[in-house]
Amino acid sequence: MGTRGLILSSALLLLLLAQPLLVFAATPPFACDPANPSTPTFGFCQKTLPVDNRANDLISRLTLEEKIQQLGDIAPAIPRLGLPNYKWWSEALHGVSGWGRGIRFNGTITAATSFPQVILSAASFNPDLWYRIGQAIGVEARAINNVGQAEGLTFWSPNVNIFRDPRWGRGQETPGEDPLTASKYAVAFVRGLQGDSPTGERRSEQLMTSACCKHYTAYDLENWKGNSRFTFNALVTAQDMEDTYQPPFKSCVQEGRATCVMCSYNRVNGVPTCADFDLLTQQARKSWGLDGYIASDCGAVNLIYGAIGYAKSPEEAVADVLKSGMDLECGDFVQKHGGSAVKQGILSQGDIDRALFNILSLRIRLGHFNGNPLQLPAGDIPPSQVCSKEHQDLALEAAKAGIVLLKNAANLLPLAKSKVTSLGVIGPNANVGYQLMGNYNGPPCKGITPLGELRNYVGDTRFEQGCNDVACNATAINAVIQLARSVDQVVVFMGLDQDQERESLDRIDLVLPGLQDKIITKAAKYAKRPIVLVLLTGGPVDITFAKNDPRMGAILWAGYPGESGALAIAQVLFGEHNPGGRLPVTWYPQEFTRVPMTDMRMRADPATGYPGRSYRFYTGKPVYEFGHGISFTSYSYEFEAEAVTSIYLNSSLAPRATADSDILSYDIASLGSDTCRHLKFSATVGVKNQGSMAGKHPVLLFSRWSSSEHGRPLKQLVGFQSVHLEAGESTRVVFPLSPCEHLSRAIDDGTRVLDKGSHYLVVGQKEHEIRFIS
Ligand SMILES: *[C@@H]1O[C@H](CO)[C@@H](O)[C@H](O)[C@H]1NC(C)=O
Ligand SMILES: *[C@@H]1O[C@H](CO)[C@@H](O)[C@H](O)[C@H]1NC(C)=O
Ligand SMILES: *[C@@H]1O[C@H](CO)[C@@H](O)[C@H](O)[C@H]1NC(C)=O
């Protein structure tokens, strides 16, 4: 053991001896140190003063050059004011991550709980679970901060862009294609991460951490056939903006009270989002009431001058973004060119102070100017809270809740441990651990593999990788055939990995990579019994061949299930968990790839054969539809007999024919908030577990219109709740509905209207009609 090991173990010993000795683990340098004789003279250090006064006090003490240097993600120390440096950029998409600059895993803490990649957690349709994941990450972040391994507590998560196109490399990071799901995910996760209660009460003046809704807005393309996210100009209609792209951001800010929004690389209708006054200032800050800061995506500001050429000089780019409402740049373009922008007279001190006020107030709210972090709220969270049993159990619960059973012909699953005497495990995704984290991960607390976990169930488990890697250009067909022939049961682990879909890389195809389908088909052909196919992917894949082949008895989608995901898969295969996840995205057929990924339109255009996007508008036949997911039992639904059937609209208002309507509609704005409140009602759905196994089941309630003409969605998710039901048990699920919000639609110009006449609530095969009359 070297000197370093000795120091580490004695530090550990001290930690074990007594809690207050935590101070001996490297306390980070902090501002407003009581030991500094100047501290009492600094207004920004006075905890009892209002945040605004403290922020203005600090601003008043800075020179112009110091101010400009604070506007980049690496904000330098200002020793004369006792300020240490600050790193704004940290990530916590599904666990505290080492991506970014603020978090280091090179001290007492070397790992953090790695929850499932977001797309899998989304499949649970369970906001309570999303909240608890956010909360656990916030606790781990503070523990990391307390041992001096965080130079920042500002996390640039969640990613709430709509998963618009199945080829998108970062779709895995998002809660899927549905605006309501993405909105509810944003609210629950942000509340957890920032330390608020599940219902949104701010429990302490000091934020646990700061969350950031990204990437604002209409960002969902990396690099597809030469179209780069850095220069892409997203052409978005007002209608799609209103009912698809903006809702998750609006909820994230308004209800989730996220303290940050990140503007994206792309342009929207010609204007770089970071230079869009309307998007940043009018909508996010004024209309939605953002209380926090607006950051740029990393390097987005220099693109505005460079690759995009929207600004004619670096100074003009800096002036554009600061005047539009961006507050903090990820990068150093503002730090480099801010001074000359002021000299040229195109940027004022006032513009800079405005931005500074937003970022410094946020740091005050994180407790950065309250003295020793170990003596503040959350200063007593010890390193043992990171990778705690509780958090690792939560990671397992989340993986189990998300896994989707796509197919289970002849009830092949669950496998009976006692009957499977030998197990053949095949595929490049079977003997992998780290790959199960997806991207934007941290170092996980533990490393387990599906193969390793299955060995715990069946002693005689044999493995053949079959493909050289996930790309699968080279195969070992004969070895696969031999293994398939010789064992009792075959389970094949296929799908994607970060070499197929990731940041900066979209897919070209939707089918499985390389020769994966050949391996699966051969294994199924020679196996004694129908095989099980487990798919590890973020985005959807076209597996029509497996769906239709009776030799492929069961298909499971497990996303990238995080550090406990391998165990979750084993538990599902052997019936220790009854899967209840439902797909948060449409699984399109390969023919969808003829649609240009650059076409942002959600709505189908029959005139040109454009099929539309997502379950709300796609007119083609999906491989598996949004919300698909079966289980080892079955559930039946019933609308309550005495349910509301007609709702009177305010008769003192006249409905009007809108430009694109076939029936009379009410403009939501003219109905007014009082009337909208008046119209609220509840729909109650009875749910019964008809099978012989307990299970957790997300109930998805949709609405549809009498026609899908004039840009109306085919259907629209209006509510979801996850219920646990014992075998034979039934329950009632109450969905509070606000017609102005849930049953309205956006017309061409983005105006929201409520149609007079019939609407239908839909759950499973059951429908219930509601009529709006006056
Ligand atoms: C961890 O990394 C940071 C940044 O590279 C460095 O400053 C620090 O000294 C390292 N800590 C240890 C214990 O190695
Ligand atoms: C495997 O196939 C991919 C395309 O599917 C190709 O880019 C790659 O170079 C191939 N690798 C090998 C080792 O042939
Ligand atoms: C109906 O609309 C009128 C005019 O806007 C308003 O004054 C009244 O409060 C509304 N009534 C209800 C029940 O919402």
From TrEMBL:
Transmembrane segments: none
Alphabetically ordered keywords of this record: Glycoprotein, Glycosidase, Hydrolase, Secreted, Signal
Organism: Ensete ventricosum
Domain Fibronectin type III-like stretches: 697-767
This protein's name: Fibronectin type III-like domain-containing protein
GO CC annotation terms, alphabetical: extracellular region; plant-type cell wall
Phylogenetic lineage: Eukaryota, Viridiplantae, Streptophyta, Embryophyta, Tracheophyta
Signal peptide: 1-25
Keyword Hydrolase: yes
